[in-house]
Design a protein that fits this description.
Helix content is 29%, strand content 28%. The protein has 234 residues and is α/β, with parallel strands linked by helices. It has a single domain, classed as P-loop containing nucleotide triphosphate hydrolases (Rossmann fold, 3-Layer(aba) Sandwich). Strand 9 and strand 10 form a beta hairpin. The longest helix has 18 residues. The mean pLDDT is 96. Bound molecules: adenosine-5'-triphosphate (ATP) and magnesium ion (MG). Adenosine-5'-triphosphate (ATP) binds next to strand 1, strand 2 and helix 1. The site of magnesium ion has 3 residues, from helix 1. InterPro entries: AAA+_ATPase, ABC_transporter-like_ATP-bd, ABC_transporter-like_CS, MacB-like_ATP-bd, P-loop_NTPase. Pfam families: ABC_tran (PF00005). This is ABC transporter ATP-binding protein.
């Protein structure tokens, strides 16, 4: 049986005039359903490129990408739109909330476009924002805004929750509480979570660590007893 997520010899080449950039070069890895996976590596290593191909935001130049039995790398643009809409939840470094909608409306907006959304208010309660649902993003702290963004992604009831440097704009304690929320969500809801970070200190919290260097996988390892993030210091 094949893995829930699999990359097989995936490459991504960007052409800019005379110059070609091999952002991702023959990358292979797999992730099992329900795992908390961390993709780690230095700036420019190709982490975001990998995540964008996995989430159907960018096509690959070669190789095969499979998610839950579907061949993502063979999809038409229309199929990719449906895949992003129904199967993927994204969380970005800078939240990307709609400023003139409340927290609740931001979550409802996302749940309106997918097939089996969860109740927006319930999900906001689960991320700890039950009391702040009617606030606008500008009335919330960075950590609270990131919780709204996580609720927005989770309300879609996605197969995969993809997070690109989700704590990059947050202070130490707030970043830790966001990572705890992601780890708890993975454990309690069984959703497969992929987190990108440049911070190697976070790797003990993962079931699986994929280390990316110069566009290639330098190392992939699994951990049967990951550390709760609140016990990690960095
Ligand atoms: N749209 C693009 N056009 C051209 N080159 C790109 C494009 N996107 C990424 N690259 C290049 O591909 C390489 C990998 O970039 P990527 O953004 O995936 O790195 P990263 O590991 O996410 O880095 P960071 O930690 O700084 O976010 C870099 O050399 C980058 O300049
Ligand atoms: Mg990046």
């Amino acid at each position: 049986m094949s893995a829930f997520v699999s990359f097989e010899e995936v490459s991504k080449v960007y052409r800019m005039g005379e110059i070609t950039i091999r952002a991702v070069d023959n990358v292979s890895f797999s992730i099992e359903k329900g795992e908390f996976a961390v993709i780690v590596g230095p700036s420019g290593a190709g982490k975001t490129t990998v995540l964008n191909m996995l989430g159907g935001m960018d096509g690959c130049s070669g190789g095969t990408i499979r998610v839950d039995g579907s061949l993502i790398s063979g999809m038409t643009p229309r199929q990719l739109t449906a895949y992003r809409r129904h199967d993927i939840g994204f969380v970005f470094q800078f939240y990307n909330l709609v400023q003139n909608l409340t927290a609740l409306e931001n979550v409802e907006l996302a749940s309106q476009i997918c097939r089996q959304p969860l109740d927006a208010a319930t999900v906001l309660q689960e991320v700890g924002l039950g009391e702040r649902m009617n606030n606008f993003p500008a009335q919330l702290s960075g950590g609270e805004q990131q919780r709204v963004a996580i609720a927005r992604a989770l309300a879609k009831n996605p197969k995969l929750l993809l997070c690109d440097e989700p704590t990059g704009a947050l202070d130490y304690q707030t970043g830790k509480s966001i990572l705890k929320l992601l780890q708890d969500t993975c454990r309690q809801k069984g959703v497969t979570v992929v987190v990108i970070t440049h911070n190697s200190a976070l790797t003990p919290m993962a079931d699986r660590v994929i280390r990316i260097k110069n566009g290639t996988v330098a190392d992939m390892r699994c951990c049967s007893h990951p550390t709760p993030v609140e016990q990690i210091e960095w």
